[in-house]
Structure formats: structure tokens, C-alpha cells
Amino acid sequence: MSYPFQIRSLEEYSSAYRRSIDDPEEFWTEIASFFLWKSPPQKVLNWNFKDPMVNWFDGGVLNITENCIDRHLADKADQPAIIWEPNDPTEKSRTITYQELHEEVCTMATVFRNHGIKKGDRVCIYMGMVPELAFAVLACARIGAIHSVIFGGFSAQSIADRIQDAGATAVITCDGAYRGAKDIPLKSLVDEAVEDCKTIKKVFTLIRTKVPVSMIKNRDYFLEQEMLEVKRSGTINYEAEPMQAEDPLFILYTSGSTGKPKGVVHSCAGYMIYTTYTFVNVFQYLPGDIHFCTADIGWVTGHSYIVYAPLCAGATSLMFEGIPTWPDAGRFWDIVDKYQVNILYTAPTAIRSLMQLGLGPLENKDLSSLKVLGTVGEPINEEAWHWYDKNIGKEKCPIVDTWWQTETGGILISNLAGITPSKPSYATLPMPGVQPVLVDDQGKLIEENNVNGNLCIRFPWPSILRTTYGDHERCRLNYFSAYPDLYFTGDGAFRDENGFYRITGRVDDVLNISGHRIGTAEVENAINMHAGVVESAVVGYPHDIKGQGIYAFVVYNEEHSINEDATKANIAATVAKVIGPIAKPDKIQLVNGLPKTRSGKIMRRILRKIAEGELHHIGDTTTLLDPGIVEEIKKNKI
Ligand code: WTA
To answer: pTM of the entire structure?
Structure first.
């Protein structure tokens, strides 16, 4: 049985798309009617992109967790909501039914309530990929607390920055997290972070790796113990906080072209409706299917397509704690085989790294349950697309190339599996409700096809970001000021003769490393914190596995230099300390100076060419203060 708003043919897609453009309010009202409201919305849409101000489903009152959980208790109480596969395949897996999810989430929500956490409070979540991470997200939503999940690869400094920016009052963490052969000491990083965070009143720790943790009286609590007490005393509070449609649901920090990550804010109703709508339509999810999204819940993909949308749709969502290559490169395929996964949603970087390891890990793995494959996070090159299609999908599974962003909440451009056509390396067509346009650098609308341009969206969809936390002007400047009355994505795109979009990558100073966004300015700031560094410039370069690698040109003060290798290792360690291991440069070149214009501006274009290996196409260097520096950098390129 399909969903009432499921598009089942190309004609239905065309008609849904047309309706969504002709009368967006009527279109989304109908879809909204399939969700559970405490009171229904009165006004569907109020908006302008100048302030910007976007309000969807005003007057509506709901709690997203009643849509994710309670609604399914009537007919799906015993169906698995979450299947959890541990990092170590010899450890027991876990299955959490909708009934159990209800119990766990309400218990955790009661713990938080009892500790004084209330609607509107900000709560940081820094955990590994364990089921309790999903429970924690939902428990916050249950009581109306705004969660800010921080990926486990970020440093104590990054945690502190995010806690301070959001003014968070509580942290939920684990003693440690397993990722492949590694064991990450999450709690001790949290301890280090909260030393500088006066707003934090409570820290809840879930035991996972059994590494010793420090516990401070009246601040630190063991989460299971707290939950056990609530269960034992029979005081679970099942109430779901009534939330206005536009109340914030969560903050998720993401990198932009400036030094500091921004807290993207999503609101309750629009986010819920749009992510669920796209989940059902893009993946063509049918009740009973097992959906396996390999992302981490620390990124938006995990928020939207592991937790919220699958659960709203009453799906079974598979959550994996580990990494694709440990204990061996057959890990994903073992999981697909073991649980008879129907939908696999992963990142091009994972596909490329598995592709490199050959077909051995696929031997004797039954992948016949797969129906749909998906990719997200970066452009997928044709070679990886064909490998995925041939060896994983056996040329029988449509591949959906889903383009979207933290700021968009859900998928904006993608084919619908088996319904609309696919084309390797193309995200293809917009979802209903999404109106993409291309503009040139002057902001002029490009009407024709077979052109490149800057990708913008000219009408709000329900899950567009509402603001950047604590700084609305920054939101306006970043997304709504480059081109008047348009949301600017920061991506470039090519539109072919059929109107299909191919995303060509970022046109700003944001790198995409293994599908993770990192701002060059952010990495430069971290490098410049190293005692011996005078200045630095960071650019991206093509990397076989990661898509892009980080290349840092660093001017180093000789007096501090002992030996070059040690210096580079120390610079990398500094970046890991300041941002986190995910931002470590792949290449560091020590240089005597950077190419600058006479007005002192670093010519990144030249450095980018050098990093890309285009040594003979550097372009004009005559306007540089010291053209000689370019020759020297070229000569010593890594
Ligand atoms: C890139 C991830 C090409 C793009 C959901 C975007 C893609 C950034 C694709 C957002 C795709 C994401 N094809 N590029 N299918 N999907 N991107 O915020 O540059 O982590 O702007 O959200 O990833 O990354 P974010």
C-alpha cells in the first residue's frame, strides 16, 4: 500500500509539480492534512526573501514526535522502528519497535523534564551512533527543547563554540564512541569543552565503551540510571509538548565562507512535512521496506533520513554504528544481506573508497533485496555511478542522486526512484514545490538550457531554514543578499536540454571533503593559531576518494622551525585540536610568501590552480606584488 501523497508515475509527478507551482498553498495544505495536528494550521504561507521571513502552516499546533511515534502505535506497535547494527559485528544487534521507542523516548523526555529542561532550551547532543542518540533527539523534540547535534569528529573547541553560540544548558553524551578500530573519548572532550561554558547546568552520559569518565556532583548524571529510576517509580510522563508550527525544532551548525560555523535553524511543521514527503517520494518507500541510510546523525542527512522522515512515515530505519571498511570492506554488504535491506542511501565518497578495494568484499553477499540506491553529499562521478549501478544494484535498482543542503532540510533536486528518469551525475529534476533557477554572476536570470549558472531557488519550500541562530542578519547576508529575492545555494549547476540539473560544486569558499562541508576560512583560522604560523591560505584539490582534499599553503616563521615534517605534523595536530580531525589538511606546503595583489589580497585562484596541478595555466600574474613567489610555490608543489 502506498502513501496518499505518493507519486506513482511520471504523469503524476508532472501534475503534482504543476499543482505545486500553480497553487503552492493548496498543494501543501492537502499534504499537511495527512499528519497529526493538535490543532490544524490556519494560514498556509507568509513569506518574503528580503528579511527573510518564511512562515508555513501558521496557527498549527503539533508535536513532531507524535507523528514519528504515537501515531503508529495503533497499527505498527510491534514493527521495528529502528534496527541497530553495532560497530563490531560480533556484538548483538538491537531492534526497537515503535512501542519500545515510545517508552524509551518518553522515559528520556521525563528525565530531561525532571532536570528542569523545558521548551525552548537548547540542548547539545554529542554521541556516537547508538539508538539512544535517536532517542535523545526525539526526547528533546518531545519536550520542545531545541537540539543541536554535534558530529563526533569535532573537537572540544568546536563543541564549546557551538554550546556558547546556542547558549545551551545541557549536554547529552556517551562515555565514548566506537568507529571502526577507533575508540573516541566523547565525555572527556565534553568535559574539556564545558570548562568554558558557563551556561551548561547538566551533562548526561550514556555508557557505551566503558572507558572511565569523570563525574562532577550536581552536574553529571548517568543517563541509564536516571531512566531506570523513572521507569522503576512508574512516573513516565507521556505528554508531548504542544508546539507552534514555526517553533524551532533544532539547530545544526554548518560551515560557510566565513570563519565561524553558523547555526541553521529548522522549525517543526514545515520540516516534518517536507522531509516526510520527499522520503516517501524520492526513495519510493513502501510500508515494510528496510531503509538503510549510512550517514551519521551528526549531519543533516541523518537528522532527516534516519530519524525524522522515516519515523514519520512509519518506516523501519536501519542505523549503523560503524564505518564501511571495518573490520573489512564487506561491512555494508554484510548488513544489506543480514537485514535484507531494500533501500541503501550513501555518499559518493563511500562508494569510491569501496570501489577501490575491488569486488572481493562482494563475494557471497546476497544483495537481491535491494530495490533503490541513493547518493548524497557531493557530485557523484560517472565511474562511481556505474560501479554502484552494476555491482550493487545489479542494474535493476534505480539510483537517486539527491541534491540538498543543511539549510534546505530535505531533498530539493532528485529523480524519484523508478518514476522519473535518471541520468548519471545529474540530480535531474526539482521536487514538487521547488523552483530552481540559474543566474549569472550579475544576477541575471538565465532562461535557456545547456548552460552553467549559480543555482538559486525563487520560492520557499516548507523546510527552508528560518534563520541562523542568534544572528538573523547573517542568514540574510549569506543566503538572501547575493541575488535579490532569491535563495542562493552557494552551488553552481549545469542545466541540460531537458531541464535536468547537474550540480557542479560550490562556487564559494566552502570545501566538500568526503561529503562534509568545511570552510577554507575556518581551516585557515585554525592553522593560524599555531604558534609558528605567520599566515596561510587553504584551497581544495581533486581527491580520488574524498572528492576534494584540503591543500594548505603556510608561511612559517623560521625561528620556530625544527624540522619540516615535525612542523607539518604539528600544524595538522593544531587543526585537529581546534576544529576536529575531519578538517586536517591532506597536504601542507611551507612557503616563503603567498601570491598577493598590490592591495594585499591573497590570489586564491592561483593557489587553486597550483593545488589542482594546472601549473601551466595559472593565468595572469603580472598584477601580483611579487610574481616570483608563484614560481617558487610551483617548484615545491606537493
Ligand atoms: C553538496 C548535505 C552534488 C552541495 C545534504 C551542497 C551535492 C552541499 C549533492 C550541502 C548532490 C549535496 N550532488 N552535490 N547530490 N548533495 N551536495 O549541508 O555542494 O552537508 O551545497 O548537506 O553538498 O552539504 P550539507
So the answer is: 0.96
Query: Does residue 446 surpass a pLDDT of 90?
Result: yes
Query: Is cis: bond before 327, omega within 30 of 0?
Result: yes
- Answer whether 512 contacts ligand 1 (Cβ < 6 A): yes
| 403 within ligand 1 shell (Cβ under 6 A) | yes
CA atoms within 13 A on the CB side of 396: 9
- 367 CA distance to ligand 1 middle (Å): 27
Write out 279-341 in H/E/C secondary structure: HHHHCCCCCCCEEEECCCCCCHHHHHHHHHHHHHCCCEEEEECCCCCCCCCCHHHHHHHHHCC
**Cα separation of 154 and 466, whole Å?**
25
Q: Where are the domains of the chain?
A: 66-241, 518-635
Q: Is residue 163 within 8 Å of residue 194, measured between CB atoms?
A: yes
Model pLDDT for residues 39-95, shown as the tens digit of each residue: 999 999 999 999 999 999 999 999 999 999 999 999 999 999 999 999 999 999 999
Query: Hey, what's the cell of 470?
Result: 542568534
Give CA torsion, residues 417, 306, 82, 105, to 10 deg. -140
Which are the contacts of 113, defined by CB distance < 8 A and separation ≥ 6?
Answer: 143, 237
Domains 66-241 and 518-635 agree in fold:
no
Distance between CA atoms of 580 and 8, rounded to whole angstroms? 44
pLDDT one-digit tens code per residue, 571-619: 999 999 999 999 999 999 999 999 998 888 888 889 999 999 988 888 8
Q: What angle do CA 198, 168, 468 make, to 5 degrees?
A: 125
Q: Whose CA is nearest to atom 24 of ligand 1?
A: 405
CATH class of the region 66-241:
alpha beta
Q: Alpha-carbon distance 488 to 479, whole Å? A: 5
Cβ atoms of residues 62 and 36 within 8 Å? yes
Instruction: Select from 67, 10, 7 the least CA-distant residue to 33.
Output: 67
In sequence order, which ranges of 303-459 are alpha helices (DSSP H)?
309-312, 331-339, 348-356, 382-387
Nearest CA residue ID for atom 7, ligand 1: 378
Taking the domain 518-635, which CATH number applies?
Answer: 3.30.300.30
User: How far is Cα 343 from Cα 3, in angstroms, rounded to an integer?
Assistant: 17
| Protein residue with its CA nearest to atom 1 in ligand 1 | 378
Nearest Cα residue to 490 out of 174, 196, 281, 254: 254
Q: How far is the CA of 224 from the centre of ligand 1 (A)?
A: 36
Helix ranges (H only) for 23-130 are: 24-32, 64-68, 73-76, 98-114
